[in-house]
From TrEMBL:
Pfam family, one: P-II
Record lineage: Eukaryota, Viridiplantae, Chlorophyta, core chlorophytes, Chlorophyceae
Name of this protein: Nitrogen regulatory protein P-II
Any one annotated GO CC term: cytosol
Tree of life domain: Eukaryota
Length: 205
């Protein structure tokens, strides 16, 4: 009896040292088992220009700030609508920049669309987009006089720019006429905003 008791205590002692469990034989057997092999899935995330495609040319800020729009197809048109589509989180930067330079007449719309960002497997905001997935964007519509088109396009492009695929696009459309509802004014009188870009440029002179 004394020998059996001593053996049991000794086994329990070894088990406790191994993994701290009371059941001696079962616990000790588990401690000797090799750890299970776990499967690990590795995901390689690349920058937009590295997703199996040649590197995309990135504009410099100097290039963005020297954009010139070709309006020669509409020589008699006095007004143009600038339609800018870009990333949602750039909206405050774009609106703030336009406001600082006197552009206060604009319309904002939340839109969804497919472009290069949705045309290839891309990651944006923690979500992967495929060929037909619509991506959230913001759209600004700004109607300006012909002389202000280049300046406004440059401001929007520079403030919406990140250098990644999905920065957006700017479209310039001819506008036949502008009418201010409150005063029934038309043409340049209707388009002009008091204290806007034109007035700010006059003050500088």
């Amino acid at each position: 009896m004394l020998a059996r008791t001593a053996t049991t205590v000794s086994t329990t002692s070894r088990a406790n040292k191994c993994c701290g469990l009371v059941a001696p034989r079962v616990a000790h057997a588990r401690c000797r088992q090799a750890p299970r092999t776990q499967r690990r899935a590795s995901v390689q995330v690349r920058a937009s220009g590295e997703n199996g495609k040649p590197a995309v040319k990135l504009a410099s800020y100097a290039e963005l700030e020297s954009i010139q729009c070709d309006l020669s197809a509409f020589p008699t048109v006095n007004f143009f609508r600038i339609e800018a589509i870009f990333r949602p989180w750039r909206l405050p930067f774009v609106v703030d920049t336009l406001s600082k330079y006197g552009i206060r007449g604009l319309t904002n719309t939340a839109v969804k669309g497919v472009g290069v960002q949705g045309g290839a497997r891309e990651r944006y905001a923690g979500t992967e987009f495929g060929l037909t997935n619509l991506v959230d964007k913001e759209k600004l519509d700004i109607v300006v006089a012909r002389a202000q088109v280049d300046a406004v396009v440059r401001l929007v492009a520079a403030s919406a720019f990140t250098g990644e695929i999905g920065d957006g696009k700017i479209f310039v459309h001819p506008v036949a006429e502008v009418v201010r509802i409150r005063t029934a004014e038309t043409g340049l009188d209707a388009e002009k905003m008091e204290g806007g870009m034109e007035d700010m440029q006059k003050k500088k002179k």
